[in-house]
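Attaching the record inline, Q. Sequence:
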Amino acid sequence: MIKPELFDLVELLVDLPEYNLIMGEQGTIVEDYNDGCYEIEFSNDRGETIALCPLQIQQFIILWKANSKTWLSLTEKLTALIDKLPKEKQQKILDFTRSLLDFPVDKRP
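Structure, as predicted:
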């Protein structure tokens, strides 16, 4: 698992109606409470804060690492999502992925 750190960009995995936030919205980690809880700041297009939310690590994934100034790869994001699932759902994803390998590869030039 990639450890969340201050100023990382994250994506919300759940709806938070009490904050008028929906899954997929992006925010920035502004506080690490050292117990698996992080304060995330969500802003509008003008940079104005629209919500500050304490979130558990299960409620978001990291998109961008502030330390290294790098975006996470698709593989890293998928791994982060899969790690949050129970083992039986992880197995279903593995089975589905294996089934994709059975399809013919598109051989267009």
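The CA atoms of residues 63 and 72 lie 5 Å apart. The longest helix spans residues 87-100.

More tomorrow.
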